[in-house]
Every structure is written in C-alpha cells, then in structure tokens.
Amino acid sequence: MPISTLDNFGIIKRTRSYSDTPGIASPSWLSSSVVYEINPRAFSNEATFTAITKRLPELADLGVNILWLMPIHTIGTKKRKGPLGSPYAVRDHMRIHPDLGRKEHFKTLVAEAHQRGMRIIIDLVSNHGAQDHSELQDHPDWFQKDESGEFTRQIPGWSDVIDFNYENPKMVQYMKDVMIYWIKEMGVDGFRCDVAGLVPESFWSDIHNQLTTINPEFFMIAEWEDPELHLQSFNVTYDWSLYHIMSKIYTQEADAQSAIEHICNSQKDYPANALRFRFLENHDHARAVYKFGVHSFRPFAALVFTSPGMPLINNGQEVGETKYISLFDQSPINWKIRGANSVKSFYKSLIHLRKQYPVFTNGAIDALPHNNSRQIAAFYRQSENHFACIVLNLSDTPANVELTIPHESNQWISYNVTSMKDTELDIKPSSLSLEPFHGQIFIAR
Fold it and tell me: Which of these, 20, 203, 292, 406, could form a disulfide with 297 (CB 3.0-4.6 Å)?
C-alpha cells in the first residue's frame, strides 16, 4: 500500500465501521495476555538465548506470558548500518544469528517458556530482506526493482534492505515456508509481523489458514493500525494513535479525556474480536520514564493496563531504564538503575490487578461522565460480575473532578495508581481531588 495513503506511518484511516463484523477468533487466553519485548543484544551482556532462558523465572514472576523476540536471524553485511547492523536487515530467514546460539539453544528457550505457561513469538520481517539476502543471487526476481533495473525499497531511508516481490509466486511460497518452519519445526507460538500493511493482505489471510491447522492457538500481531487486517488474518493490531494521543496529553497539546474517546471510538470501528496492542514504549520510541517522566509515567501506564487490549512491556521498561537502545550495536540494559525495584513492583501490581479482576481484560468500556476533561481521563469497565472505574489526572497540576458513576454499590476497593496500595471505601466515589499525575482505580465490591 502506498505510503501516501497513510495519515501517519502504519495508521490507516478507514471511513466505515467494522463493529458489525466479528473478525477472526483468538485463543481464549490471548485477551488476558501481557507481552514482553526482548532485544537479545540488550537483554544481557552475553546476548544469547541461554541468557534469556536463565531469566525466565524472573519474567514469570513479573507476570508476563508472551515473550516477543526481536529478529533473531542472520544479519546482512552489505550497506550495513552501524557496527552490528539492524536485526531487521535479515540475510537468511531460515537461519539463527550465530552470536545468539544454535537451534538447540533456541528450542530449549521455547520449551522452558512453555513449561512456565509462557508463549514465544518472534519478529517476522516479511516485507524486505538484507541487500545481500541469501536468496538474492539465485532468485533476483524475488526482489523489487526500479525502472532502471536496480533493487529498491518503498521506504527510501531503509537503505540496508530491499523489498520482496510479492507478485512472484515462488517468492510468496518461500515466505510461507519460512513461517511454517518456525511454527512447526521450532515451536514458536506466533509472529509479530513487521510493517504488516506493506505486505499484501491476501498473503496474510492465506498463510493464517494454513498455520492454524498446524497450531490452532497460533496468533499474529500486526505492526499496523488497520481494522481490515482483523477480518481474515490478524488477532492483534498496533494502537499507534493512542501512543501519540498520550504524548500530546503529556505536553498539554490535547485534553486528557481524548485518550478515552479514542479507545471507545476504536471499539466501535474495529471488529468485535479485535485486540489492540497498547504501550508506553517500544524499540521504535523513547523510553517511557524518559518521555513521560520518572514521577508521572504511572497514570499513563495505568491507562494502558486497564483499558481493553494487549499491553506491552519493553525490556528494561520494568526497571525504569531511560537509555534508548540502538538497533545497530550492542547496548546492554542497566538492570540496577536507581528506583528499579519501585518501578518493577508497580508494573507487577498492574499485571496482578488484570489477572485478579478479569473485567480489565474482557469487560466492556465506556467513558465515565465528569466535569474536567482537560485534566482528567475517566472511564469504566463492566462485565457480568464486576464493575470498575478508572480516574486519572494526566496533568501537571492538582485537579478536582465530579463523577457520575453508573453503579449503585457503596462498597468499593480503591487502588492508588502511584503506589498501587488498596483501600476499602463505604461510599460511592463521586468527588475527587487528585494530585498531579495521580489517579484512582475503583472496583465495586
């Protein structure tokens, strides 16, 4: 799809609603999952699969249950960026980069994760390959060329890669074989599909049907924001828009309640089964603590973890790492950064809250009526057995707010989103005074 049709890269503006369409069904456990992104180069000094395997108990204790490994394949050398090259410039989609370990090390990681109830997904870079891709010499017609016959790409700045030619049936079969290999032979549970919207949707729908016959609980996350991808192919799509809205709220360029309006509207615009991938950071953007502030990121994180969809923790986010990880060299995370224990405890508490109260994973969402949309983001979640409301001051000044809560209970548990400590209340919360970047989560008893 031409980049000129996008309002922002990876964000498609559709004019119709897909709420009357169910979309593809997902495994029952997927909606309650939390994804943990791992850059193997940064996750440990050793930068190996074995190092990741050793820390699985720690990740299980955090509460995440899907581990997303950034590309683990061999990396091209021609026109390489930086000393090590980008892992997204894949030289051979069937081979593991030797620095990470061997096949048996990867299979051990997958098996150990499965024993702990965690799934493993890998990054699938299906739009392009390295300038010296392993198939280029024998199959030059598998790659895109410009009018002068030179290998080319749709995104000019990605100078270390060239695009695959999806008009070539043999190339299409190659990429299908890649996906089948990693699911069937290597045991991965799914893919996070890089720039998924640049690959023809017909490819995704066709291979999805094939892979679900191999593993009925197989799933895919699209790095793209388009409701149509849910119709036949993808379980999860990125919510870049929410990230950009939260960024504008933090810089006071948008009202706090605009985040809730976006989430509620997307629930109406997307198919019923669609899950949205929501985050405060990932490998493409600045660290959450750096961007949103060491004392003010928490209510934004609470918004991500209590709204519908699938939340992401980027490796190092859980300890408050502020350093951006380069794609082109090895830059280990500082796991002992000051205040790490407090940040980790906070995320662990948010994940526990989601597990303790399924209303946060399967309950309906609606805006909570109130009188301070500039500073306050407020919404409620409701399921058959639970009711919760979330009230967040996303501004740098104290805020007063009057709430209209559509629930009759006078017995509530209140969680302070700064400390995640709980308090029992015997009155409906209707009038609040919140400090800057503070908030409360109320759950009816």
Answer: 292
**pLDDT of res. 6:** 46
Integer Cα distance of 405 and 32 in angstroms? 25
Residue 250: CA count within 13 A, CB half-sphere: 21
Q: Which of 418, 413, 419 is nearest to 436 (CA)?
A: 418
* pTM, 2 dp: 0.97
Burial class (CB in 10 A: 0-12, 13-18, 19+), 64: buried
27 alpha-carbon distance from chain centroid: 17
Residues 384 and 246 in one domain: no
Distances (CA, A) of 396 to 173, 234, 267, 287: 54, 38, 29, 19
393 and 297 in a common domain = no
Contact 401, 434 (CB under 8 A): yes
CATH code of the domain in which 405 resides: 2.60.40.1180
SS3 182: helix
Nearest to 275 by CA among 283, 285, 263, 259: 263
The confidence score (pLDDT) of residue 2 equals 35
Q: Which amino acid is at 193?
A: C
> What is the pLDDT at residue 13?
81
Both tokens assigned to 197: 């919207």
